[in-house]
Amino acid sequence: MTFIASISSFYSDACITYATLSIGYFALSKNSPFSFEAALWKRVLFGVLAGLAALYLGQDRLIISGKLYYSFTMMPMILVMFYGGALSGAVCYLVNFAFTGGFTLDNLFIGSIILPLLLLKVWRKKSNHVFYLTIGIIALYRIAVVGWFLDLRNLWLDILLYQFAFALCLAICYHALRFKERHIHAFFSMRNKATTDSLTHINNRASVDYKMLLQHAQRQSCGLMILDLDDFKKVNDTYGHLAGDGVLASVGYILQDCVRQEDFVGRYGGEEFIVITSSYDPHHIATVAERIRSRVERSNFASTDGTTFQMTLSIGTSLYLPGMSVEKAIEMTDDALYDAKRGGKNRVVSSRLMSLAPLGEGFGR
User: Fold this and answer.
1) How many percent of the chain have pLDDT more than 70?
2) 301: which residues sit within 8 A by CB, 6+ positions away?
3) Minimal CA–CA distance to 88: which of 125, 124, 45, 126?
4) Which of 93, 148, 267, 299 has its CA 20 to 30 Å from the CA of residue 81?
5) How far apart are CA 290 and CA 316, in angstroms?
């Protein structure tokens, strides 16, 4: 197939490559932006999708002589490496390797290009400069290898135009994915700013309210804790507001470290925090609450001048059960917190609603 005859296939090859990687990138960015640091299964899946695209692109070839030919097979391999890292790139290559005859001359040639990219870790240096330098070197290498074995005097025009088309399609797909990447990162950045407390880096009050409304709408039972730092005003008065901010940030970290991944932690306002546990078992809630209370009591906090001090917190625990109003569930948890404060602080007090936990069995997880 000459270059002129190949023109019609370039557009479809570029579209197939971009569509496959774009849809994959978007789907894998559902909860967080996809990158070379994403979950293992995401990077593997991204590599598999790119491998399938590479198999499709291998059908359109510029035959040079005998078994020598050019194709767009490497296009998704290069792109997936820039966006998914080493694992995605290696998986893409192995998929193509497995379904195109294994140790063929073409696969070994592709491997001689992919391996240096893996060793150079191009995904960590991703920039327009690095990308164009990469595809320029690859184009020259492909021409040089073929030129070493064959007299290309009658094929120079086709080969040069084909490499130009390859680089152009690769560049279009790269920048289109780059555009999508920037917008996905911007979306998550704005979402985090809207839902995350800037000081403690945990969920803010708006997120807490939404979480409780979601529990109510889905009729899911859960455990509730409202936590309040004891005598927090004294910290601000004695050590300054910067020290107080440091305490709040540290407590936010402690809360995240003391609960399970499926539990929810948020700043409820001022020095108050809230924990929403997926379990509504009273024993489990009491255990987690005591773990948090003890951890804060044992922690050393520091002022801006290096002085260390200790803090305690009081915790009220309760439940949300389907059929309750969110306001009532929060009110009963708050009442338990006030009982803990009146009882001497630095303690956990459960609301009387805990005795009704069995009622949540028909609805809870």
Assistant:
1) 91
2) 235, 243, 246, 247, 250, 308, 309, 310, 311
3) 45
4) 148
5) 11
Return d(Cα 349, Cα 339) in angstroms, integer.
Answer: 7
DSSP 56-92: HHTTSEEEEETTEEEESTHHHHHHHHHHHHHHHHHHH
Each residue's pLDDT tens digit, 132-154: 999 999 988 888 877 776 666 66
pLDDT at 66: 60
Pairwise CA distance, residues 93 & 76, whole Å: 9
Query: Average pLDDT in the 238-262 region?
Result: 95
Domain boundaries, the chain: 3-195, 205-362
Predicted confidence at residue 230, as pLDDT, reads 97
Closest by Cα among 171, 153, 151 to 163? 171
CATH number (3.30.1050.10, 3.20.20.370, 3.30.70.270, 3.10.450.50) of 205-362 reads: 3.30.70.270
Strand-pair partners of 226: 274, 316
What tens digit of pLDDT does each residue of 163-204 get? 888 888 899 999 999 999 999 999 888 888 888 998 999 999
3-state secondary structure 112-140: HHHHHHHHHCHHHHCCHHHHHHHHHHHHH
Annotation: CATH topology of 3-195: Arp2/3 complex 21 kDa subunit ARPC3 (1.10.1760)
Among 286, 299, 284, CA closest to 347:
286
